[in-house]
Write a structure and sequence with these properties.
about 230 residues; alpha+beta; five-stranded antiparallel β-sheet; 10 helices
Length: about 230
Amino acid sequence: ELRGWRVDGDDVVLGAAITYTDLLAPDLAEKVPALAEAARTVGSPQIRNAGTIGGNLGTASPAGDTLPVLFALDARVEVATAGGTRTVPVAEFVTGPKRTALAPGELITAVRAPVAAGPQEFLKVGVRNAMVIAISSCALIVDRTRRQVACALGSVGPVPIRDTAVETWLTSRIDWDGGRLSHQSVIEGFGRRMAAAARPIDDHRAPAGYRRHTIDVLARRALERVWADA
């Protein structure tokens, strides 16, 4: 049952052993499109056939491709032992680079995330176009029902980064009834603010300054794309 998924009210419940390939199936991808977009960028077909969403959570790599999406969705992680189960918000589950809140003997069993209520986008930059570890990534989620926008950044901090002040700033500049941004300058302002929220480091893949620049570009590009679909 760890390989299955189901809709439970407003949530989709993903078994921990669901593979990246499974996330690309049309009936599931329409429920969580940004997760499907992230899964599509992972490795080769062989890796996507073997790698799982539970594995991405368990390794807790700052560059994990599904993690920014799960953070932006406010996903919850279900874990179990022989003695019972508990649910942990993903922002509390991933505690640092390759560190999680899993206690001894606990197993990740499922991930719970809201069914899409608006357009979603995931973008990443690497040293080439395929089979690459992210230099930076950005997940943007629009919730038309709640009139909210969430954005999470990957590979530019010890854990995926959200800035609720920037999300509030953006949400207040959206004409929700008219289905448009208040002004084109909002896109540029959003990119600058998300780049400022990033906490990148220099490493063998990219210098911090380049990572911050890519976040500016990715955030603006993601906002343009979701609003084109809004």
